[in-house]
Design brief:
This protein is mainly alpha-helical. 47% of the residues lie in helices and 8% in strands. The model has no long low-confidence stretch (mean pLDDT 96).
């Protein structure tokens, strides 16, 4: 394993792929299928654009990327693992203290494969969800960013497919093929997790998705980066370095929309959403409804509050907690408890359960802390404009389909509602067809003049890789 990536090979890699001819041939067989999937399901009408993209050339924390114009189908999707750490051990669960595994432990094979497949499935799903958005981009800068996110999600699929091919033999190869066959939103063969079957119909949805849902990616990858199965840990460690940019895109993208709306409202001294819409920007209540939707479907991605799967993943050393090794406890958790919320009649109550069974909930709580900080940043833009509006995260039971709140209606402020109360008010809280139609009416074509931005979004503070904001980030040829 080297830190520099071998770009001489058909499949760029730092895992010495050429030494294992059988594996190399299997992956080279999968490669054209992947290219077929990219051609069918990747960004529309983008084949001949030259896009100013970063490509990983090493896995060192400093200077791992080069920036250059690339046609996306020619992007060098590679297999990149962070360097091994000498003497690494399993750091949690019943196997704590044993050497980390470099091969799949037989008794954990199917659980591990399930985790890798679930992670892998989200990557192509997000590309499918976003494939139409290039046609309505608000600027060349934003277009380049979505394409960067898309090619890197493709690389993350490669990362999981490498693990499946290298460590799981024939069923791993079958799973790798199935990853290219499922389709986001398909009735017969959908993606595995709920949020990845929801449409991403416009750029506000895209930015909310990259802010909320990519951040689930961060927390899940960080937990898998603690895995006692070392190849998975090393793969996820490098994926996390790429993921940071995706969340930056969401955080700043949604932030720029909020900023633009707040500026227009303040300048024109208006607060009524209809008047705000008339000025061609997205009113704050609509932004709040999008936030409510993306936050709640993303909370579902953490799984059930009380989960024997999660307990098994942890006890067997396959999936840790967020920043497991930095936590100060026994890392075994057989004695500890954790509070989970549940619905008891018309009330919400807290119940202490064994901490091992509540690991999904704990990860969800860690995640909530971080998204709150992002929403606070957006609110500062509203405050700066002197407006009395505040974006808020709804209660974590709001609009949930997985876990203790599934089957109940919880208001954004955390009250248990009857069906009638919910049906009477859900349009206030979740985007309606009308909201989507309005947002999409603002995004009917793409804005591609150098340095120009659509009316509904503020320009970014700086460009990419120290380039100016009016740089030609995409050439259409
Ligand atoms: N929708 O005990 P349960 C990312 C299933 S995002 C549908 O509740 P468990 C990215 C569950 O699969 C990060 N089904 O949960 C972001 C299980 O089914 P099986 C992706 C759901 O197993 C943006 C059953 O319900 N990575 O990277 O403890 C762009 C009972 O399971 C859902 C991972 O998720 C749902 N929301 O935990 C691009 C990490 N939730 O197995 C990329 C790997 C649960 O009985 N996955 N179910 O058929 C995991 O760690 C776990 O599978 C989960 C679920 C946390 C997802």
């Amino acid at each position: 394993m080297t830190s520099t990536v071998n770009y001489g090979d058909k499949i760029p890699n730092n895992v010495d792929l050429g030494r294992d001819r059988v594996l190399q041939r299997a992956l080279e067989h999968w490669q054209p299928q992947y290219m077929g999937w990219w051609s069918d399901m990747g960004p529309t009408e983008s084949r001949i654009h030259d896009v100013y993209l970063r490509t990983a050339i090493s896995v060192e924390p400093e200077g791992w990327a080069v920036f250059d114009y690339v046609k996306m189908p020619e992007y060098r999707w590679g297999i990149l693992l962070a360097p091994p750490q000498a003497g690494r051990e399993v750091n949690f669960g019943v196997n704590k203290g044993r050497p980390a595994w470099n091969e799949v432990p037989g008794e954990h094979r199917s659980a591990l494969r399930r985790l890798i497949v679930t992670q892998g499935d989200t990557e192509p799903a997000s590309v499918e969800q976003q494939r139409m958005l290039g046609m309505s981009c608000p600027s060349l800068y934003d277009l380049r960013n979505i394409y960067q996110v898309n090619v890197e999600e493709g690389r993350h699929l490669w990362a999981m497919v490498y693990l499946l091919h290298r460590y799981f033999g024939r069923d791993g190869r079958e799973e790798a093929e199935a990853l290219l066959e499922r389709r986001s939103g398909d009735e017969d063969n959908p993606r595995i997790l709920g949020a990845f079957n929801e449409p991403t119909p416009d750029w506000l949805a895209f930015y909310m998705f990259t802010f909320f849902t990519d951040r689930d990616g961060k927390f899940q990858l960080a937990s898998l980066a603690e895995s006692g199965f070392d190849p998975l840990a090393r793969t996820c460690r490098f994926m996390l370095t790429e993921e940071a940019h995706h969340m930056f895109v969401g955080d700043t993208g949604a932030g720029r929309i909020v900023q633009r709306t707040a500026e227009v409202m303040a300048r024109n001294r208006i607060e009524n959403p209809d008047q705000v819409r008339d000025l061609g920007v997205i009113d704050l209540p609509t932004i709040q409804r999008y936030l409510n939707f993306h936050y709640s479907v993303t909370l579902d991605l953490f799984g059930s509050d009380v989960s024997s799967n999660a307990a098994n993943f942890f006890a067997s050393g396959l999936k840790g907690r967020y920043r497991e090794t930095a936590l100060h406890d026994d890392h075994v958790l057989t004695e500890a408890t954790y509070a989970v919320s549940e619905v008891a009649g018309a009330r919400l109550i807290n119940r202490e359960v064994p901490a091992l069974s509540a690991l999904n909930e704990r990860l969800r709580d860690d995640y909530i802390g971080e998204v709150q900080a992002g929403v606070d940043r957006w609110n500062r833009a509203i405050e700066r404009s002197g407006l009395p509006f505040k974006l808020t995260l709804p209660h974590k039971g709001f609009n949930r389909a997985i876990g203790n709140f599934a089957g109940h209606h919880i208001s954004p402020d955390g009250r248990v509602l009857t069906d009638d109360e919910w049906n009477g008010r859900r349009r206030e809280w979740l985007p309606s067809e009308k909201d989507y139609a309005f947002v999409q009416s603002l995004m009917s074509g793409r804005v591609v003049e150098l340095g120009k931005f659509a009316n509904w979004i503020a320009p970014p503070r700086t460009g990419i890789n120290n380039k100016p904001i009016d740089f030609e980030y995409v050439r259409f040829n």
